[in-house]
Design brief:
The chain has about 325 residues and is of the alpha+beta class. The chain has 2 domains: about 170 residues, no CATH class; about 130 residues, no CATH class. The chain contains 4 helices and 21 strands. The strands form 6 sheets. The chain has a 5-stranded antiparallel sheet with strand order 11-10-7-12-13, with helices on one face. The chain has a 5-stranded antiparallel sheet with strand order 15-16-20-19-18, with helices on one face. Strands 1-4-5 form a 3-stranded antiparallel sheet, with helices on one face. Strand 8 and strand 9 form a beta hairpin. The longest helix has 22 residues. It is elongated and about 110 Å long.
Length: about 325
Amino acid sequence: MSERAAMDVFDEMRSVERPKFFDGQQLFAADLDGIVAFNRAMRWLHNRSLHQPGIGSGLAVAGRRGDREVRIQPGYALDALGRELVRLETESEPVPSVASEADGGPVTYDLTVSYPSDDALEEVETREGVCLEGGAVRVRERPVVCWVRLARDPLGTLRPVDQADALAIQDAMKIVIARVEVLNCRLNADLSVSVRRSARPPERPKVTCGGCVAVEWRPWTAPDLDGPDGDPMPIGLRGRVNTSAAGFRATPCYTARICGTRPLRVQVAGGFESGGQTVLVLDAPAYVVDPMPDRFECFVSVIAVDDLLSEDILDAAALAARGPWGVTWLGIEA
């Protein structure tokens, strides 16, 4: 929206004056029209202050190669002044009746919608006046659908041929809903909707991290692998990390690492491998498993220094890690 267009709207408002009435007051058409104008001006001010021009919902356009018309679905859009462009019916729009460009190639058009001027509003209901001339009592604010012809500038960029159309699209007074190529009065290819702009601002990825979160560690064994004694192979530690404080709405992409004291000293009372001595346990990179919006499982492989990792050592390591080892995590919700 240009600065000039914004200033024009504020100039038209002049002041924020809400109509007020009293019993016995004689009402004129201007009084009732003032209510409509006030509410409309406040609504438009809200739209352009808190939203951006573009397509809010719907206004899907369909057309395939060889078609002579495109079909526009119902929908809602906003222009740069905050005015609502609302279509309630599915309608067809004929393809422009052109053969080709001068070089024989297809002609490119943008299909746009814009807010109608007050003079162009369709009168859908009129009434006779009492002792005075009658007039319209209901008009339809139907957006104007218009084809805008494009041509390539010296740099090869497609731009509207008419300068007024170029400014209207640039200032978002005309909203582009589709682009087509026309050859011999037919679509030369399926229409494109890549030029559409959304009234909804794009959502930025939500990035949240957690500090050294305490975890209730448990032994991690591989049921499909047998250890030296025939029991499941001891691999490492696992624990659930709570991320509910981040308030993720969808499952984010998590990364995690182990934080805390290194190495972990584990006291094992007995066992062939440990000989009842202190064993040093080191951690490998952490893995995120079964991620959810409010949690994930953290798996970390561990090794025993100068000893074989056994179930006894793993059980003792799970107890010893509750406190010295935590998890630092990062979640990115697209």
